[in-house]
Amino acid sequence: MNLSNKTILNGILVFSILSLSIAYFIQYILGHQPCNLCIIERIPYLIAVILISMVFMINKYEQAILSVVLLFFIFGTIVSFYHFGIEQGFFNESLVCELNNSKNLNSNELLNQLKNSNIVSCKEVTFRFLGFSLATINTIISVILSGIMFKVIKHYGQNK
Predict the structure, then answer these.
(1) Which end of the chain, N or C, is less packed with Cβ atoms under 10 Å?
(2) Mind listing the pLDDT tens digit for each residue in 26-53?
(3) Domain containing 41: what range?
(4) Is this structure's pTM higher than 0.85?
């Protein structure tokens, strides 16, 4: 891997760690509960941290691993855009927005959970930065990260 790609991947690694840290800070310190789509939108960053770290440690299958990171950032772009669309009223909320961790509950337990649940609607924007929802910001960032990863993979192995 050439120095340029290594520098770019280090930047994506640091950015992914920073993004996850900010998301958890907003959730646990500032007290803004995420909706289910917000939680799903964290997955590409977590995968990027794990897989890019693997690339640096094992120095094998770099292009294949980075292709998986690209696919997860594309997935993140789609989910973020969908979330943005729900916030703007372009799309209806899906079942994913209403999912709660209810495993094998009887009818009384399910009713009690529904009464006491704090399910956050995917439509509701509970936190804004510079006037933009986090779904909006994440859509833009995911598109940019997908483009960067595409470029890294496309130019992989050049200038060795």
Answers:
(1) C
(2) 889 988 888 888 889 999 999 999 999 9
(3) 3-154
(4) no
